[in-house]
Amino acid sequence: QLRHGPSAIMLSRYLGQDAGETLVALYVLPRRGRLHEQAIEAAVHKADARATLTGYGRLDRSLRASLTRDMPRVGAVAGLLVLVALALSLRRPRDVALAAAVVVVEMALVLFLIRVLKVPLHAYDALVLPVLLGITVDEAMFLLFRAREAERQHRDIDVVVSETLAREGPPVAATALTTAAGFGALIICDFDGLRHLGMVGAIGSVSGLVVALLIVPAGLRWYQRAP
């Protein structure tokens, strides 16, 4: 009767047969800290040394450990690739330095803000950091290429900066803010991973816009007036 009634799904999910024995699947969720988890693991391994423990909690810890271990290496490789791409695209030491400065400051600001706002950094929302890096590089490059065009027509750096911001500022701002809005929509998700991803993405998109609009004009003025 149980096999054909509403409880059939329970039987198919949590009951099984192995060598003539009936197996029951149990989901244990310790709530008292790591010591109690270790006690459960020891008890399971004592009963069956080949048993494998799994679950979201163990996966989350494994991903956090991997993130802590691999993030510095991934960041170093990503930074090197960004510098190479900037050098090949911009071909001017000044512009490469300014674009790189925008990226570095934006990443530092994002990490600072998510710490202040107590947004946890884990394997889900960390995936958005490379995306933010690419978005911010685009914003800096658009401003720098517009500045090059203005420099061909004007010698006054203030005019160059004003024209660059007037012509390229609105589309750059629109791109960043619509991206932030898209990420921000994820904040209403029930799943913490997606919600945190949306928070980091929205914070990063706005931060990248602000940093690009501040550092590029300031850098252009500094390079022009430097002895």
What secondary-structure arrangement, pairings included, does this model have?
Layout: H1 8-14, E1 15-18, E2 21-24, H2 34-47, H3 56-90, H4 93-116, H5 128-153, H6 157-185, H7 192-225
Antiparallel strand pairs: 1-2
Offer a few descriptive terms.
mainly alpha; 7 helices; elongated; 227 residues; single chain; Multidrug efflux transporter AcrB transmembrane fold
Describe the structure.
By secondary structure, the chain is mostly helical. It has 2 domains: 8-47, no CATH class; 67-225, Multidrug efflux transporter AcrB transmembrane fold. It is 74% helix and 4% strand. The protein is elongated, with a radius of gyration of 26 Å. The mean pLDDT is 84.
Précis, in short:
The chain is mainly alpha-helical and 227 residues long. It has helices at residues 8-14, 34-47, 56-90, 93-116, 128-153, 157-185, 192-225; strands spanning 15-18, 21-24. α6 packs antiparallel against α7.
List how many beta strands DSSP finds.
Answer: 2
- Give helix % range: over 70%
| Known CATH architecture of the largest domain | Up-down Bundle
Secondary structure class reads mainly alpha
Shape: elongated
Q: For the largest beta sheet, what order do the strands appear in spatially?
A: 1-2
Low-confidence region ranges: none
Radius of gyration: 26 Å
The proportion of strand residues reads under 5%
